[in-house]
Amino acid sequence: MKTKNYILILLIAFSCTMCNSSKKEDIVSTEVSKQDNDKHPVLSPADSLKMVNHQIEVKGDVEFPLQLTVDSLKKMKVVTIDDFKVVCQSGEVKKDDKICKGVLLKDILEKAKIRQNGHKDRNFYIVARASDDYKATFSWAEIFNNPTGENTFILFEENGKPVKNGEMIAICKNDIKTGPRHVYWLKSLEVYKVK
Ligand SMILES: Nc1nc2c(c(=O)[nH]1)N[C@H]1C(S)=C(S)[C@@H](COP(=O)(O)O)O[C@H]1N2
Ligand SMILES: [Mo]
């Protein structure tokens, strides 16, 4: 009887060490993939030119899908944004614009008209996606029921010149670190309902 218990305890102890070692491996592997994701690939001028879109698509759960160019944005209500800094999550200042021009994301979404089924149907999220598949996410409440809605823009001009890295950039001036939701090479604005 005693030996049986002893073997049982040994077995339990052994399986516990196995669990721990596999957990450690998991942590190591996610750390490695995180590092890879953080790397900023340096593209050749030709490759970065391939990332440029002349129009952005507004699609998903909208009544009027749109294809917007810089010219079509200029025909909407253009706003001027002063002193916009792009700050990476690391704290590094990546860009310091004295003046930019753009259109409110809110105005674009109102034009495309989110397909809402009654006033309680407001659990939507909006993905600003770039050609390199970099993306940022906004929520319906942030844009339509929060001051962030008055601070989220699609830019087409920086310091009196067309924007670099594509023709349009999504930004959120309200963010603490503005780098993450600064989406250059912008390709689409996608509206989805939370399932
Ligand atoms: N399309 C695209 N937009 C992007 C990124 C990216 O990799 N691709 N990097 C983001 C990050 S991490 C930061 S800090 C800012 C500034 O990045 P930059 O240093 O490449 O200008 O842009 C953001 N927008
Ligand atoms: Mo960043």
Automatic annotation (TrEMBL):
SUPFAM superfamilies of this UniProt entry?
Oxidoreductase molybdopterin-binding domain
| Residues annotated as domain Oxidoreductase molybdopterin-binding | 50-164
Going by the entry's taxonomy, the superkingdom of the source organism is recorded as Bacteria
Q: What is this protein called?
A: Oxidoreductase molybdopterin-binding domain-containing protein
Read off the lineage from the record: Bacteria, Pseudomonadati, Bacteroidota, Flavobacteriia, Flavobacteriales
